[in-house]
Amino acid sequence: QVQLVESGGGLVQAGGSLRLSCAASGSILNINAMGWYRQAPGKQRELVARIVSSGSTNYADSVKGRFTISRDNAKNMVSLQMNSLKPEDTAVYFCNANILSHGSVRWFDSWGQGTQVTVSS
After folding, report:
1. Measured CA angle at 15 (ends 10, 17), to 5 deg
2. Is 90 exceeded by the pLDDT of residue 104?
3. pLDDT, tens digit, for every residue of 3-28?
4. What burial class does residue 63 get, using C-beta atoms within 10 Å of its C-beta: 0-12 exposed, 13-18 middle, 19+ buried?
5. Distance of alpha carbon 57 from alpha carbon 21, whole angstroms
């Protein structure tokens, strides 16, 4: 009933920039937190950046000062501007949203399918 669709991944050289976007659609009454996670080969999925409905944000230490998360509450969208990319940023990036659906009283986490970001040295 709820779908998250990511876009914007790709291949970029070190020092370059990419912008990821994620749109949530379906039976959505409200969205609390939205965020981006990433998973590199052989590693656990980790939080990259998170933003709550009030606009408060938090970032992984490894991306502070380089990445900026933003959201459009009216469009149920979240974006991640990634600057000064490093090879260690290479991973599959997943969009996440904490959602309350119409007719439900329980919040749940929804995930996108993931988008590949590859940073070459």
Report:
1. 45
2. no
3. 999 999 999 999 999 999 999 999 99
4. buried
5. 16
